[in-house]
Amino acid sequence: MANIISFLVLLILGYVFGQWAERRHFKFIQHRERLLKNILCFNVKTLPSYDTAPDVELVVGNVVISIDYFKRIAAGLNNIFGGRVSSYESLVERARREAILRMKLNAKERGASMIFNVKLETASIYKGNGQQVGSVEVYAYGTALIDNH
Amino acid sequence: MIITNIEALPGKTIVKHLGMVQGNTVRAKHIGRDLMAGFKNIFGGELKGYTELLQEAREESVARMIEQAQAIGANAVINVRFSTSSITAGAAELFAYGTAVVIE
Q: What is the Cα A117 distance to its own chain's centre?
């Protein structure tokens, strides 16, 4: 009985706080995306031609985000019936957008306005003991062009 | 030392290729951070401790790569790539590799 109660409490806590945190995070992401929209990202390697050569520097951004309890249970149910696992979709989307934003911020701090050859790498983080944690790390990196004149 | 993940540097010419250089580091999770992560697993959200841990580890692997490049007389590393792999539960390997070159 105690097990069922703690399970339900965790489920409700996860749902309430998870939804709230996710909505807040998306709002925060959108806000910063508007602020950093003048920093352009490209995933091509060829640089535009310049009269005076710009400086180049590697810029990076990373983030680790964990899923909440409710969504993890929902994803577990999805695993039985198949189909889209929408709870993980939003998790990975948040992580990617956040990582790109941090990379852009890193570029902005160095006075760059363009990032070339942007690569994204995603890694899942497990806890072991068969206990799935459901955290994802996204790492974004690219070459920032810094106009030095 | 210039580090980029593109193949050519604007306004500079590559005079010599010195081959591949690499740097890696294997990091384990810290128990305090792990406890916090367990907590965050209920509520969801960013695991700041892990974000920092992985970023520090990547910086270290890049530093090792740079060390190796300097040892063979390079002044830039181009076409840098990163790779992450979890080796066992609780430890991750962060790997950085690139081509060491001499530029003018």
A: 18
